[in-house]
Amino acid sequence: MTKRIYLALAIHNHQPVGNFDSVFDQAYREAYEPMVAALERHPHIRMALHYSGPLRDWLAAREPGFLARIRALAARGQVELMAGGYYEPILSAIPSADKEAQIRKLAAAVANDFGVPASGLWLAERVWEPHLALPLAQAGVEYTIVDDTHFKYVGLDDADLFGYYVTEEQGHTLKIFGSSKHLRYTIPWATPEEVIAHLQDEATEEGVKVAVMGDDGEKFGLWPGTYTHVWQKGWMERLFAAIEENAEWLRIITPGEYARTYPALGRVYLPTASYDEMTEWALPAQLSYEIRHVKHRLQAAAEREILRFIRGGFWRSFLVKYPEINTLHKKMLLVSRKVWAMPESPARAQAQDALWAGQCNCPYWHGVFGGFYLFHIRTANYERLLTAENLADAALHPAPQWVEHTEADVDCDAANEVLLSGDAANLYFDPADGGSCFEWDWRPRAYNLANVLSRRPEGYHRDLTVAAEAGQVVGAGEPAEELESIHTTVVRVKERGLERELYYDWYRHASFLDHFLPPDTTVDAVLRARFGELGDFVNQPYGYHVAEGPGTVALTLARDGHVWQGNTFCPLHLEKQVRLRAGGADVEARYTLSNTSGQTIAAHFAVETSWALLGGNGPTASGQVPGQTPFGFNEPVGTPPSEALSLRLGWLNMEIELSFSQAAALWLFPLHTISNSEAGYEKIYQGTCLFARWPLELAPGASWSVELAVRPHDLTT
Prior knowledge:
Elements: E1 5-13, H1 21-41, E2 47-51, H2 53-62, H3 64-75, E3 79-83, H4 96-114, E4 120-122, H5 133-138, E5 143-147, H6 148-152, E6 164-169, E7 172-179, H7 181-186, H8 192-202, E8 210-216, H9 226-232, H10 235-245, E9 250-252, H11 255-261, H12 276-281, H13 285-300, H14 304-307, H15 318-321, H16 323-340, H17 346-357, H18 375-396, E10 403-408, E11 417-422, E12 425-430, E13 436-442, E14 447-448, H19 459-469, E15 473-474, E16 491-492, E17 513-517, H20 523-527, E18 543-549, E19 552-565, E20 568-581, E21 587-595, E22 601-611, E23 621-624, E24 637-649, E25 654-675, E26 682-698, E27 703-714
Parallel strand pairs: 1-2, 1-8, 1-9, 2-3, 3-4, 4-5, 5-7, 15-16
Antiparallel strand pairs: 6-7, 10-11, 11-12, 12-13, 13-14, 17-22, 18-19, 19-20, 20-21, 21-27, 22-26, 23-24, 24-25, 25-26, 25-27
């Protein structure tokens, strides 16, 4: 009797909200369209396809004929369409109401676009948590696909995964397939003959086993070198031809058809997990480096019995590893509560769609593919969330101009934050962390002016420094000895010398941070985060109180801290008051410093503000103090004492004016991060820090004050 086996392929296609149109277009031309064209040439090849909402919207606007071609494939039973959260959220990280609504929105789009129901669901980044079985089942999902990693965490092995299992939550059942890591790593990296040989080895006389591979469509053309390998050199053509030639024993099937035809292998309860690489990325930097290299050593030594017990981290740890991700996530939760509190109306439907777009997963994590380090991707999510919040607040506040404050534990650290909110601006303060302003929303522009990123060590930074020391770094245009993927060890850089720009911050960059600096401090030292700090104010707790008046709200933050003088800490009282008014985005701040010690305090006092100048390394971005030559934001800059400064982004028609009641010497320096991607290491501009500095000499009992004003301008009005 001939041994047989089924093969089920599921291809996930996605581009994040806010990605460049050129990237959508390239992905379409080099990955998405060639795959559909190959299916049209090979009518006996069947697979499941998933298109996320942002990609579906782009295709509907730019390539509607492409959707018609997929509809034709679905009509003849060659393609099975999968649903998911419309805007590709990490489902476990968004509110329950948003989970179900996003799934139903994409399911409705699938039915409308392709004329068939979606029975399966693509789980974004395969981030699974046990509670998901309930909302997925309630949304009508029949099956989903996770990695074999999830199953191995509960003791199953490769031989146990040629089928699907059933899980449940509160009696609601869901079918779950495990995607084969072997197939993910060999398609398209091994030869088609090797793929076929592996499947033949797994075939049985019963012929009911199914090998499942679910993976990203971008690796079939968009990853470096894959367009040439997969399409121009015909790798996919050879694979499809080989499957057809072996049709007697190798049967191609869609996951949904298999799930409806054959019984489950059993019941299973999977732990929290994602794909193997994601669990590595979620760990702290040093552990991320160590686990990856331990795995490499064990794989080289064929220590499989040890490898199976090595487990990485938990996806939600990204909310701890990167405070900026937690800020975005908690903003999303706040906006979701506001939107669902709106009365049912067209405005609420519009706000819901903007909210869901702001839940797109890409800036909520970081790995080789995570978009957290991509400035424009973070900006896009904030823009959608602020659009939703503007609609919600317009419905919830009867007056067009208003201002209010809230004291709540927004970031979920068991300490209250203070939110100053108005019709034109939001300022979120963390009294426990230097009394800093960590979110500064310019609401008419739906733009978070504080959306900067601090510089932190990454596990892969050590790979870069080791490779640079050994002279083994590969430049952007240099050929590699092997076809590259995220699993290869090639260290490729988009520009040379990046290892010399690995600077790490010891605090989170934000606004209204208070520094006391030695007089000989330089802007270069501040840029490199290698400067002396004489005070204990930057990331320490402040007390606070809030006063509301007619059309105004004022937050006063105060700390009794110390400034190091010679060989002693001298007490100093610092008070800063920030005021926001209804009807405008202008912000006023007043600082008062009082020497409560018995000796003179001499230092440079600096107020740090951080500015999310998207495209600040481009030609239309400039800063200027009156009477001086404009400067760019890509290099550190020092200016003579001035009472004013303007920060301009011409391409966004945006300008921020700052004024000081006493002339301040100004330092501006860029925040550049060094991050890795499937295309190599790159330097990315993440915003600009401004230190406004004043020489300070306070006698015992003396006080000193200064006022700052910030005025955003929309240059189109």
